[in-house]
Specification:
It is an enzyme of class 5 (isomerase). The protein is of the alpha/beta class. The chain has 33 helices and 16 strands. The protein binds adenosine-5'-triphosphate (ATP).
């Protein structure tokens, strides 16, 4: 009997017979859907309640199979708007993509679209918190959501308040080591502590502790378990305390507050049961990137009335690349996998169709080599030992494990970084000529490398009609309002050491002044800006910076206020679309200051824009933009996660960058051979992990600073290796890697426009190991 395909849309009652036919048809469709999955992926589709961990390899089709499994679960358990599947992922673009995949499948299966929701973790928390404002204490009509970073004014204010409340502790830090009481040195140390060391400590510690559910009081408590001259954790606890007070007094909230607010809501039995009865199960993608607090939220929602957790967590611990700058830590997902393994609830998705067989071989080799030789660690190996396997011959993915281009894995050692540019240009030109529909990208470790490449490859656009898309340029747009604000603040109060330093940092980043120790310049603004004939003459680098700053001050006298933002845009040498962003910003400020146009109001409005982060650059972010054919995308390895290209170039693979060596900025060496932020973080991490295992926070000593620093260094190196692994596994047909014999001493201080010097560089150890293994590459 034919089925009226619109039967659901029309909401017509079904006869028994029709119902049976529909049911049979659907069960066949579900069977076909299940069979479209690879063996490893099927475990997701076969899930029948309870906890399941899925540890997947790069390109295994995590989101693809999660979408299929979601549709199958919705059909199997007859889910509907009052009993939903909750799918959670990390970024908004990933959420949009998985949502549309699930919708498509549900439409084909004629199942209700309201049977599932997709959220980012923060979106989910926000949803819960705002629906119950009385319990969450969160009112988004009045509160401002903000993501404080190290240079955020709230953090700076927290530091200032902490200093005034804890003068003795501050004094101890100031004296640090080898202090002879000399005044200039004291001023310099003050500047370093107030503008670098303490904001960085506050930022790191607050994120780390708060996202694990630790409050300032908890931090005070564990600080008693450490012994060091500065009482680093006690300093950190004090900063955290000030931060919380300030955030509250100004009605600001951060992202962790949102999760905490949602957890507060769910402490209420009635509300919790309401949510739990609506949530059938939670499927989480990118689970390696969640923090303990986020996991706690998901676990509560996924608990059914019998206390069973219906929670599926899919992730790849080997692609955990955010743990050095966010509190995400692969350890948690690894542990979840281990626990599930003991209960036979661990599945692995180890087949991937993205890359050619040889690229897969190279990635597997790199992973094994790092674990065994590069950074062996029995307790916490850098990688989970799982190899990528090519797919079976009858795999449904079109062009799976594609035909390689040339040798597929190429390892080069050009004489210097300029030779690399020529080699990439030549390769890309030829490859696009042969295959105009293919895609290509250069993956870099830091944005400055990207800028260097983009500037030197720009001619490809003109001469060979190959588009160059430098992703970092778009990211720089979001920094524009803050940069302009810093310059305006300096112009407004040039004698403030803080404003001067912030302005100098902007000018240095934008290469308007040469790189140098800015603390020295900023400690005595008067002397720096207007050196008297009685003081020693300024060195040429200093004189150049001083001249630049004076010109800015001079401009204030010459230009009307309303032209000032545009003028600063020109001064900072912004390029085409950056200038468009500046223009948009200037218009927005003009609009908001209409009728009260003064320097002070401009500052006020701009401050508001920067704080509330409501300003977006002119270009929009969109994943498709990164992978257009006949375009050479220049993107950081971090941002490349989740994407792939036919040809991937990985230049500048040097030992000092990958795995690198954590270093103490010269300016902060007076405190010792470690950074306070990393030491505190490693100590908190140890405390949290011990607590997880033993259930106790107290009763053991935390590592001393140098040991904690060593731990931090090891974790950082492990993450750098994982980053390289993510980068390598983005390639489909050609993976081109290079370690130049000569490169800049440090990219952050390299000014190629001024003919910066190159020096001999050591290749990244994995690169060398690959050279030995793939001799013909
Ligand atoms: N069973 C399958 N049938 C057809 N295509 C598949 C299947 N599994 C995966 N794919 C395809 O493989 C590609 C990679 O999938 P996806 O992007 O979901 O991988 P991933 O695991 O998220 O990768 P990564 O973590 O490395 O970014 C996609 O184009 C997807 O459509």
């Amino acid at each position: 009997m034919p089925i009226d395909s619109d039967i659901y849309a029309k909401n017509l009652p079904l006869g028994k017979e029709q119902e049976n036919v529909l049911e049979n048809a659907r069960s066949r469709q579900l069977q076909t859907l299940r069979e479209s999955l690879r063996p490893g992926q099927r475990s997701l589709a076969d899930w029948q309640g309870g906890q399941l961990a899925v540890s997947a390899v790069p390109g295994a089709g995590k989101s693809h199979s999660m979408a299929v499994a979601a549709a199958i679960a919705i059909a199997r358990y007859n889910l509907h708007p009052k009993r939903q599947l909750v799918v959670v992922t990390f970024t908004r673009s990933a959420a949009a993509s998985i949502k549309s995949k699930i919708r498509d499948r549900l439409k084909t299966l004629q199942l209700p679209l309201g049977s599932f929701v997709v959220h980012t973790l923060h979106g989910l928390a926000l949803n819960i918190a705002t629906r119950h404002p009385d319990q969450s204490g969160l009112n988004l009509d009045t509160a401002t959501l903000t993501t404080p970073n190290q240079s955020h004014h709230i953090l700076k204010a927290s530091v200032e308040q902490w200093i005034s409340r804890h003068p003795r502790r501050y004094q101890t830090l100031l004296e640090g080591m080898h202090f002879d009481g000399e005044e200039t040195e004291r001023l310099r140390r003050q500047s370093v502590l107030r503008t670098e060391v303490l904001p960085s400590l506050a930022n790191t510690v607050i994120r780390e502790a708060k996202s694990s559910g630790m409050r300032a009081d908890d931090l005070w408590e564990i600080s008693e378990q450490t012994r060091d001259a500065y009482d680093i954790l006690a300093v950190a606890a004090g900063l955290y305390e000030q931060y919380e007070q300030l955030m509250k007094s100004r009605d600001y909230i951060d992202y962790d507050d949102m999760i905490l607010a949602a957890l507060r809501v769910l402490e209420n039995d009635t509300i919790r049961h309401l949510w739990q009865s609506q949530v059938f199960a939670v499927f989480e993608d990118e689970a390696q990137d969640s923090t303990p607090l986020q996991t706690q939220l998901l676990e509560i929602l996924a608990t059914d009335p019998t206390g069973t957790l219906n929670l599926v967590r899919v992730g790849d611990p080997n692609q955990a690349i955010n743990s050095t700058f966010t509190p995400a830590d692969p350890l948690y997902f690894n542990r979840f996998c281990d626990r599930c393994e003991k209960n036979n609830n661990l599945a692995t998705m180890n087949q991937a169709g993205r890359s050619s067989a040889r690229i897969i071989e190279a990635a597997n080799f790199a992973l094994r080599w790092v674990n065994e030789k590069g950074l062996p660690d029995k307790n916490e190996p850098p990688f989970r030992l799982q190899a990528i396997h090519p797919v079976d011959a009858d795999d449904p993915q079109a062009d799976a494990n594609p035909t390689p281009t040339g040798k597929s894995v190429e390892l080069h050692t050009p004489e210097d970084i300029y030779q690399t540019i020529d080699a990439i240009a030549q390769n890309v030109t030829q490859l696009f000529k042969q295959n105009p529909h293919h895609t290509a990208a250069i993956l870099v470790r830091e944005n400055r490398q990207g800028r260097f490449l983009a500037e030197h490859l720009e001619y490809l656009k003109r001469d060979r009609e190959i588009a160059i898309y430098e992703v970092g340029e778009v990211e720089r747009h979001s920094k524009i309002p803050a940069e302009i604000l810093k310059l305006l603040q300096f112009i407004d109060r040039p004698h403030s050491p803080d404003y001067l330093k912030a302005a100098l940092e902007v000018l240095q980043t934008r290469e308007r002044i040469p790189a140098q120790d800015l603390n020295r310049l900023a400690t005595t603004p008067e002397q720096f800006l207007y050196p008297s004939p009685l003081t020693a003459p300024q060195k040429p680098l200093v004189a150049q910076a001083s001249r630049y700053c004076r010109n800015l001050l001079h401009a204030r006298l010459e230009l009307p206020h309303y032209q000032f933002i545009a003028f600063l845009g020109m001064t900072l040498n912004y390029t085409g679309s950056e200038l468009a962003t500046v223009q948009k910003l200037a218009e927005r400020v003009a609009q908001q200051t209409a009728g009260r146009n003064s320097f002070a109001t401009i500052l006020e409005v701009l401050q508001e824009i920067v704080t509330s982060e409501r300003f977006e650059g002119v270009e929009e972010d969109n994943d498709d933009q990164y992978t257009r054919p006949n375009q050479l995308t220049i993107i950081t390895m971090h941002k490349a996660k989740g994407l792939d290209w036919d040809y991937v170039f990985l230049p500048f693979l040097h030992e000092d960058v990958i795995p690198g060596q954590p270093w103490v900025p010269t300016a902060a060496k007076f405190l010792g051979d470690f950074t306070l932020a990393e030491v505190a973080r490693a100590q908190i991490r140890t405390a949290l992990h011990r607590q997880e295992v033993t259930g106790r926070v107290k009763g053991f000593d935390l590592p001393r600073p140098l040991d904690a620093w060593e731990n931090a260094a090891r974790l950082k190196k492990a993450e750098e290796y994982r980053l390289l692994y993510v980068a390598m596994t983005r390639a489909k047909r050609l993976l081109w890697m290079s370690a130049e014999q000569k490169g800049p001493f440090r990219w952050s201080a390299f000014s190629w426009q001024q003919g910066g010097n190159l020096q001999a560089k050591k290749p990244c150890p994995v690169f060398q190991a690959l050279q030995r293994r793939f001799k013909d590459s």
